[in-house]
Specification:
By secondary structure, the protein is α+β, with helices and mostly antiparallel strands. The chain is built from 11 helices and 14 strands. Strands 1, 2, 3, 4, 5, 6, 7 and 8 form an 8-stranded mixed sheet that branches. A 6-stranded mixed sheet has the order 12-11-10-13-9-14. The chain is globular, with a radius of gyration of 22 Å.
């Protein structure tokens, strides 16, 4: 990925802005994405039963606007979750004031928050900053880059990705960014993702595309097995490219879907690579299961295992932990048929240790990207999940998150 976006990466008809409104002790903490015309919109949200006020409001606004959205406003530094009726009122006020400034309906505004749970949101700071946020909105690459930084919490770096494709001879641009570093698990996580495209596509197809891609990207990563209360991925398509509208699952839809998956998978892997205290990304592939669902369940169980993740922190080729985690996933398989490869080295054959050089394996496990392949030899089901190692730094960060 390039070090930063260029003007050629910005989809037509979108602007961005970010400012410091004082929710965080320092740095940018309020961001705005705007489409100059109502855009088709799709979103997926956290599956946690505890859901923040902005999540509930954004669900409501998507439905009432019939999936037509003009803007997304995001604050970091405060999750506005478990804040009762004042929290709900704060999200509504945020959308209402922004809609007046933009000249649109409040239902055409999505609201997102990220940060500490259970702390009252200082809504007066957001409301006071909104006029300046709108005035400073720009379509240049620098504004987008500031947007990517304003949504960060414990992230150590901004995360963005872009793609281009041609539809009917017209160039279509797709640009996305995300934040996330901890409280990351499949079924969404403490992560926010924002995607903009100047493609023209119907809301039902846009929603189908996003759900399909999220299953193979954001819902295939885990840092610590915790699912957050604020997770949101929103995708806006405003049609400003003048390309032919995508209305059926034809070749244009498939090309758009492939570009969207490339962007989302890049963002998802960036989140894992930036996992709190992480040293390396671990790809877990389970093959030979009776079904995709069985393979996915086993892969996720391995990825969630603290014993597996701490072994990777020490670059310890302890394959027994991998097989033991697979065995507690609740999926029937024959342990005596299982083969395991670690960093390209076969270390387990038919459920027993296969002779290997531990020093070589240790060196290979020090890489930034380490693959595991677990073959059950029970069927054709295959699934991949990505996680990271579990270090003492993760404990340090999360032991003092509020203080």
């Amino acid at each position: 990925m390039k070090s930063g976006p260029s003007s050629a990466d910005i989809p037509r008809g979108f602007t961005f802005a970010a400012i410091a409104c004082g929710l965080k002790k320092k740095g940018l903490d309020l961001a705005l994405l705007t489409s100059k015309t109502p855009a088709s919109a799709a979103a997926v949200f956290t599956t946690n039963r505890v859901q923040a006020a902005p999540v509930r409001l954004s669900r409501e606004h998507l439905k009432k606007s019939r999936h037509k959205i003009r803007a997304v406003i995001v604050n970091s530094g405060n999750a506005n979750c478990c804040t009762g009726s004042p929290g709900v009122a704060a999200s509504r006020k945020t959308a209402a004031k922004l809609s007046r400034l933009l000249g649109c309906s409040p239902h055409e505004v999505l609201v997102c928050s990220t940060g500490v749970i259970g702390v009252p949101l200082r809504i007066e700071k957001i409301l006071a900053a909104e006029p300046q946020l709108v005035r400073s909105s720009s379509s240049n690459a620098a504004a987008f880059e500031q947007f990517t930084r304003a949504i960060m919490t414990t992230d150590t770096r901004p995360k963005w990705a872009s793609a281009k494709l041609r539809i009917g001879g017209k160039q279509v641009r797709l640009l996305g960014c995300a934040k996330g570093s901890g409280m990351i698990a499949p079924n969404m996580a403490t992560m926010l993702g924002f995607l903009a495209t100047d493609a023209a596509i119907s809301p039902p197809l846009l929603s189908r595309a996003l759900r399909t891609v999220v299953a193979r990207s954001f819902n295939a990563i885990t840092v610590d097995g915790d699912t957050s209360t604020n997770d949101t991925v929103a995708l806006l398509a405003n049609g400003e490219s003048a390309a032919k509208k995508i209305a059926t699952e034809d070749g244009n839809y498939r090309r758009f879907l492939a570009a969207l998956e490339n962007v989302c998978q890049s963002l998802a892997l960036s989140i894992v690579a930036d996992g709190e205290g992480a040293q390396r990304v671990i790809e877990i592939e389970v093959r030979g299961a009776v079904s995709y669902r069985a393979a996915n369940t086993i892969a996720r169980t391995i990825a969630h295992s603290p014993l597996v993740k701490t072994a990777f922190a020490g670059a310890d080729p302890n394959w027994g932990r991998i097989l033991a985690a697979a065995g507690r996933a609740g999926i029937p398989f024959d342990p005596d048929k299982v083969d395991i490869q670690l960093a390209g080295i076969r270390i387990c054959r038919q459920g027993r240790e296969h002779p290997f050089d531990e020093r070589v394996a240790h060196r290979k496990m020090l890489a930034e990207y380490v693959p595991i392949v677990v073959d059950l030899h029970a069927g054709r089901g295959v699934a991949r999940v990505w996680t990271c190692d579990f270090t003492a730094e993760y404990v340090r960060i999360n032991a003092s998150y509020r203080t």
